[in-house]
Amino acid sequence: MKKTFLLALLAFAGYTTHAQTQGAVQKLGIGAEVVLPVSQGSSGVLGLGASLKYEHPIAPALNFTLSGGYVNLFSTERGASESLNLIPLKAGAKYYFGKGFYGATELGASILSGDGESVTAFTFAPGLGVSLASKSKNNVDIGLRYENLSANGGSLSLLGLRIGYNFGL
């Protein structure tokens, strides 16, 4: 039900997007992140955070991206006080299909820390989203991604939702 609602929202948003924000333009955005681990054994965990994203056009419908942020993964179960801090640093590409819809992929490193320990993990994050025009070159960005972090023979898989505001530069 939630997936159907999100897909319907993205479809509606795509049809209401204005032409001036379609395609690749230089942008700097700030966003709120909600992350849900989907790895086995990660039930009862939720992540909340913020991110910055820079986009630079390299072709008419293609942007180079740089992003970084902070997410706190914490337990939602009673009595549990464990938390894990996640600092992703990624570079990638975002391709605009038209009407504000895009596909993106990023690669990079994420620093995971908690309980006095930290580890750096290789990060791969493909996703889909839509940019909704607000005024001139500025827009609201809604993106859904799958993110996989791999380190020391183990991995962590996340499903992330980013809602951001992009400022056209």
UniProtKB/TrEMBL annotation:
Highest taxon, organism lineage: Bacteria
Residues annotated as signal peptide: 1-19
Keywords: Signal
InterPro entries tied to this protein: OMP/PagP_B-barrel (IPR011250)
Name used for this protein in its record: Outer membrane protein beta-barrel domain-containing protein
Native organism: Pedobacter albus
Origin organism lineage: Bacteria, Pseudomonadati, Bacteroidota, Sphingobacteriia, Sphingobacteriales
